[in-house]
Specification:
- The structure holds 2 protein chains of 2 kinds.
- Chain A is of the alpha/beta class.
- In chain A, about 30% of the residues lie in helices and about 15% in strands.
- Chain A contains 16 helices and 19 strands.
- In chain A, strand 4, helix 3 and strand 5 form a beta-alpha-beta unit.
- In chain A, helix 12 packs across helix 14.
- The radius of gyration of chain A is 22 Å and the shape is globular.
- The N and C termini of chain A lie far apart (about 60 Å).
- The model of chain A has no long low-confidence stretch (mean pLDDT about 95).
- Chain B is α/β, with parallel strands linked by helices.
- Helix content of chain B is about 35%, strand content about 15%.
- Classes of the chains: A alpha/beta, B alpha/beta.
- Bound molecules: iron/sulfur cluster (SF4).
- The site of iron/sulfur cluster has 13 residues of chain A, from loops.
Chain lengths: ~475, ~200
């Protein structure tokens, strides 16, 4: 038998029928939906007199548009209320289970899927959201789709697809202290570029990946879309199985052993051929900070902000010039001289319990710098409760952070959590695009520990250096 | 069917990595409708903070009024999966986008709305931008023959996946086409339920 990659194994096991040429009809195991990209899909179904084929494989939550201050669908304004109501009505009419704002487990779709055990190895998982790639951390093919495709999946539980190319990203060795999975993925994107993964599904492997928790692996796969990859993937192992055991939608006792046995067959064969391979030494990765307006414009915190002339590619040089102007910074400046106005710890990239633990460890007993607005937005009701039970919430509040209700919040500023024009924000989210966090907002992507340290110091700090040398951020 | 998929005025948008947050900013995503996004297209570039049109943005130049072909650079449509992005482009009047490359999800979303996205080599894109510098351009897109007809016997050929070409030419109902596989879908579900009962 021909050697196969993990991606090829899962793809082939989901072919319902070849459609024509290179297109296949694939079965979808889980379809996650939220308020922003689904209303037009349900409207289309209704118009065509179709139903949801497998409401039992469909799961909805409210996240993008919700207030993180009050648990009320009225709290984020009239148009938001209408959109949230539309989701509730659609779910009711088509029998789709919904975690609404009053549900204790409500949260960001990519946080709750894994938490509830809806995300499992070997699955094909789709959602009308690009960061669906997050779920690939479990060894599932998970990718974002548009609203027309949401309608297609609702109606048929399938999607027409073509085989993607495969990219192997091997991270060897082990990470230095204070270097996190967020830094790893930002370094990878810095190396490959925002379009480096276009047309590929990326599989992350190597000892540094094996050493990561599920939370860390999710952070890594979450941002694989930021290098253009269709999906990110990590072969499941004991860490995966242990995480899933006992989750409400995970295989229950009578099926557990059979499921694990199947999951253990999900890996790339030793002699499988990838279309492209990249190898990175974990030891070389330092805490990363983006300086520009796309995720590939990233440097280690101790590197000077690059000059446009340093890019041999004229297009990249031009992009750098525009980014420096937009960000209000100059080539040669040190990141550690940049003052921050806002700190946002949250989003589907870094709002899980481990992220909050890392941030709390940094801020414990210290105060947010004066003039800095700092927000912690847990990814889900479960994360919030756990953080409160562990005392993390009290640490944050005592340090001067706002402690919020779950939702996407300042990651995209669809609700009232925005960064004002010209303000500089240290953010644990995944996109530093112009205007992403609010018109004129200046976003620097960082890890939770780096964001926490920036909140205390009022500027970016090299957390690995400070932790080693001084043990203080003030 | 006519040989010509589209024809019209070309608007050159000389930028790389145009992301979906630029194509349609988030404040327009609360709509539950599929229409009404034309005004939202490139909103933060098209309008100044005081909501007056930005005279420096290419779409606002009188010469490009009524353009129906958008020419841009690499990695167009990167970012989110919001289908509002192709809706806004199409509703503004562009049915064809020519670029060096496109982000995957944006590409699929556009095709699902019957738009044609053409990827060309960097040198061809450069050539097309240089034509635009010589004066406003009216091009014809021959999808069946896979070429952009620039006029005066000049043309640039392009590659397209045969399945996608077929879908655009026949205007096929995508969901309807997949529903033809109903027996296979049911068969797959049965086999899945018995082999992997934990999947639900
Ligand atoms: S947290 Fe941000 S990136 Fe993640 S799903 Fe929400 S809006 Fe999208």
């Amino acid at each position: 038998m021909m050697a196969k990659t993990l991606y090829q194994k899962i793809y082939q096991s989901h072919i319902v029928a070849p459609v024509n040429g290179s297109t296949d009809l694939l079965f979808v195991d889980r379809h996650l939906i939220h308020e922003v990209t689904s209303p037009q899909a349900f409207a289309g179904l209704r118009q065509a007199g179709r139903t949801v084929r497998r409401p039992d494989l469909t799961y909805a939550t409210m996240d993008h548009n919700v207030s993180t201050q009050l648990r009320s669908i009225d709290a984020a304004g009239e148009t938001s209320r209408k959109q949230l109501e539309a989701l509730a009505t659609n779910c009711k009419e088509f029998n789709v289970p919904l975690l609404d704002l009053m549900h204790p487990d409500q949260g960001i779709v990519h946080v709750i899927g894994p938490e509830l055990g809806l995300t499992q190895p070997g699955m094909i998982i789709v959602c009308g959201d690009s960061h669906t790639s997050t779920h690939g951390a479990f060894g599932a093919i998970a990718f974002g789709i548009g609203t027309s495709e949401v309608e297609h999946v609702l109606a048929t539980q399938t999607l027409q697809q073509q085989v993607a190319k495969t990219l192997k990203v091997e991270v060897t060795g082990s990470l230095s202290p204070f270097v996190t999975p967020k830094d790893v993925i930002m370094a990878v994107i810095g190396q490959l570029g925002t379009a480096g993964g276009n047309g590929y599904v990326a599989e992350f492997c190597g000892s540094a990946i094996r050493g990561m928790s599920m939370e860390g692996r999710m952070t890594l796969c979450n941002m694989s879309i930021e290098m253009g990859a269709k999906a990110g993937l990590i072969a499941p192992d004991e860490v995966t199985f242990t995480y899933l055991k006992g989750k409400p939608h995970a295989p229950q006792a009578e099926h557990w052993d059979a499921a694990v046995q199947y999951w253990q067959s999900l890996y790339s064969d030793a002699d499988a051929v990838f279309d492209k391979t990249v190898t990175i030494a974990a030891e070389k990765i330092r805490p990363q900070v983006t300086w520009g307006t796309n995720p590939e414009q990233v440097i280690a915190v101790d590197q000077p902000i690059p000059s446009p002339e340093s890019f041999s590619d004229l297009i990249k040089a031009d992009a750098a010039r525009r980014a420096l102007t937009y960000m209000g910074i100059e080539a040669g400046q040190k990141l550690t001289d940049l003052k921050v106005d806002v700190v946002f710890i949250g989003s589907c990239t870094n709002s899980r319990i481990e992220d909050l633990r890392q941030a709390a460890a940094v801020v414990q007993g210290k105060q947010v710098a004066s003039g800095v607005r700092a927000l912690i937005v847990p990814g889900s009701g479960q994360v919030k409760r756990q953080a409160e039970a562990e005392g993390l919430a009290d640490i944050f509040k005592a340090s001067g952070f706002e402690w919020r209700e779950p939702g996407c919040s300042m990651c995209l500023g669809m609700n009232d959590d925005r960064v004002e024009a010209g303000q500089r924000c240290a953010s644990t989210s995944n996109r530093n695009f112009e205007g992403r966090q609010g018109r004129g907002s200046r976003t620097h992507l960082v890890s939770p520990a780096m964001a926490a340290a920036a909140a205390i110091a009022g500027r970016f700090v090299d957390i690995s250096y400070v932790e080693r040398a001084e043990g203080t951020y003030q | 069917m006519s040989q010509i998929f589209a024809q019209g005025l070309v608007c050159p948008l000389d930028k790389n990595n145009v992301d979906t947050d630029q194509i349609i900013p988030k404040q327009f995503l609360t709509s539950v409708s599929r229409d009404g996004f034309a005004e939202a297209l490139f909103y933060d570039w098209r309008y100044l903070a005081n909501e007056q049109p930005n005279p420096d943005f290419v779409l606002n130049e009188p010469a490009y009024k009524g353009a129906s072909i958008l020419l841009t650079r690499a990695n167009f449509g990167c970012g989110s999966s919001r289908e509002h992005a192709p809706w806004a482009i199409q509703q503004y009047g562009f049915n064809v986008v020519i670029a060096e490359s496109f982000a995957d999800i944006f590409f699929n979303n556009s095709i699902n709305n019957g738009m044609l996205l053409i990827s060309l080599s960097a040198s061809n894109i450069e050539f097309l931008f240089s034509r635009c510098q010589q004066g406003t351009q009216e091009w014809k897109i021959d999808l069946a023959g896979q070429q952009i007809i620039l006029g005066n016997n000049a043309a640039v050929g392009f590659q397209i996946d045969p399945d996608i070409k077929q879908r655009l030419l026949s205007g096929l109902d995508f969901i309807g086409a997949s529903e033809q596989f109903e027996p296979q879908i049911s068969g797959y579900e049965k086999q899945r339920a018995s082999a992997q009962p934990w999947l639900g």
